[in-house]
Specification:
The chain has helices at residues 2-25, 67-78, 100-110, 130-138, 170-179, and strands at residues 33-35, 42-44, 53-58, 84-89, 116-117, 148-151, 158-161. It is an alpha/beta fold. Helix 2 links the parallel strand 3 (53-58) and strand 4. The active site is at 62.
């Protein structure tokens, strides 16, 4: 019992120190702790410091949902070169599942997504999550699901791509390769 308590305290202090470390190393909009989809686990987006980010607002029941397949191919192609893809499920356009387990099923089971998916959150308006508040202020709010935001490794450049831009399009892959 005492060993278990010591282990839990050690683990908790390690997690807190890790978050504090990211906070000290990161002074931009990515210094935010977010919960992963269908998990108690959180990640600080600052963990991906010095790597380009492809941030996408997603939905499970949209005409563009099939883009998960292309996003996963991008992830597999560019993850070892430094690209980080972050999916943000949102019901802002009324096309997301009501239950997070169903959203997770679409992402992980139906499409085999292995890139980071975050818990369902707003991506528009006053209640948008902190990442999208910044993206929206710098570019504009997504007008539909599967808007893509390519953020440079130094966080100084953000390029927005609309829903019709397919993940494997020449336009997006060229921008990714330039960012890498």
């Amino acid at each position: 019992m005492l060993k278990k308590l010591i282990l839990q305290v050690t683990l908790l202090s390690s997690v807190l120190m890790t978050s504090a470390t990211y906070a000290k190393q990161c002074d931009d909009f990515t210094n935010v702790e977010l919960r992963k989809l269908r998990s108690e686990q959180t990640i600080n987006i600052c963990e991906f410091k010095d790597k380009p980010l492809l941030i996408v607002n997603t939905a499970s029941n949209c005409g563009f949902t099939g883009q998960f397949e292309g996003l996963e191919k991008l992830h597999q192609t560019y993850k070892d070169k430094g690209l980080v893809i972050l999916g943000f499920p949102s019901d802002d356009f009324f096309q997301e599942e009501n239950d997070e387990k169903d959203t997770a099923k679409v992402c992980f089971i139906n499409y085999g997504v292995t890139f980071n998916m975050l818990a369902t959150s707003a991506v528009r308006g006053d209640d948008a999550n902190p990442i999208f508040k910044h993206l929206n202020a710098q570019t504009s709010s997504p007008k539909w699901n599967f808007y893509k935001y390519l953020v440079s490794a130094d966080r100084k450049s953000i390029t927005r791509f609309n829903s019709r831009t397919k993940p494997l399009s020449k336009e997006l892959t060229s921008a990714i390769e330039k960012a890498l």
